[in-house]
Amino acid sequence: MNRLDVTEKIISTKVAQGIQWADVARKVGQSKEWTTALCLGQMTATAEQAGTVGEIFGLSAEERKWLQVVPFKGSLAAPVPTDPLIYRWYEIVSVYGTTIKELIHEEFGDGIMSAIDLSMDIQRQPDPKGDRVNVLLSGKFLPYKTY
Q: Is pLDDT above 90 for 76?
């Protein structure tokens, strides 16, 4: 057994029981974005969070322990993603990445936007021309230091 086995069990149970990520997040006490990442194998749970997720998805004691192991981060199997939705994120970074970099550096200086100290909020934005996906990413700015 490994973390991927636990992730696959969680996804199978979610589909079979019609579970919604927002409902899991409420029970875990974290955002739906973080909780989904946890359940998909990208975050590390506390013992309490693993217990809650375990109850929801019927995980054994061993499977719950896997949720507490620091995962290998990065879930894409190929350098260029083939899933259309994920590919569009790749496309956004390919097209607008240099613009985002330039504007962050102009505003903050030489540094990076943290993906470790990051929050995310995904919401549906109603629009008469077709609903829009509103994604807010908020990452801590980390300046490069001199030494």
A: no
Q: What token pair was written down for 41? A: 């194998």
- pTM (predicted TM-score): 0.83
Listed as own residue / partner, the contacts of 61-65 with beta carbons closer than 8 Å and 24 or more positions apart are 62/1, 63/1, 63/5, 63/6, 63/9
Among 4-8, 72-76, 109-113, 143-147, which is the least confidently predicted range? 72-76
114 is catalytic: yes
Q: Which CATH class is domain 3-66?
A: mainly alpha
Fold classification of 84-143 is: Cyanate Lyase; Chain: A, domain 2 (3.30.1160)
8 is catalytic: no
Is 88 annotated in the active site? yes
The residue with greater pLDDT, 42 or 76, is 42
